[in-house]
Design brief:
- The protein is an alpha+beta fold and 103 residues long.
- Helix content is 26%, strand content 15%.
- It contains two helices and three strands; from the N terminus they run αβββα.
- It has a three-stranded antiparallel β-sheet, sandwiched between helices.
- The chain is globular and about 30 Å long.
- The chain starts with 21 loop residues before the first helix and ends in a 19-residue tail after the last helix.
- Pfam families: Dehydratase_MU.
- InterPro entries: B12-dep_deHydtase_bsu, Dehydtase/Dehydtase_re, Diol/glycerol_deHydtase_re_ssu.
- This is Glycerol dehydratase reactivation factor small subunit.
């Protein structure tokens, strides 16, 4: 995953045959991970970054496999920064979780 390896955060790729949208898959991955962060990739190419404490239907950031490498790198870097409790890049984030008054 672009950006994630640059943060030095370990990741594991798993395949889930049960289908689902990217947000649901990301939530499943986050709940299954000891790091509590997950990235879901749907069959249609949608991508969702989330944390186990967030609602399953509201990922922190989203993208698509056809997005620019820059956007995908930012999404991956945000996953690593979320694990490391570092400030996130605010590019296309659902900031209502970070700053409720902006929601």
């Amino acid at each position: 995953m672009l950006g994630l390896e640059e943060q030095g955060v370990p990741c594991q790729t798993i395949t889930y045959d049960g289908g689902g949208d990217a947000a649901a898959l990301g939530a499943l991955a986050a709940r299954s991970s000891p790091l509590r962060v997950g990235i879901g990739l749907s069959a249609s190419g949608e991508i969702a970054l989330t944390h186990a404490q967030l609602p399953a239907d509201a990922p922190l950031a989203t993208g698509h496999v056809t997005d620019s490498d820059d956007h995908l790198r930012t999404l991956g870097a945000n996953a690593g920064q979320l694990v490391k409790v570092l400030p996130l890049s605010e590019r296309k984030l659902n900031v209502s979780y970070l700053y409720p008054h902006r929601g």
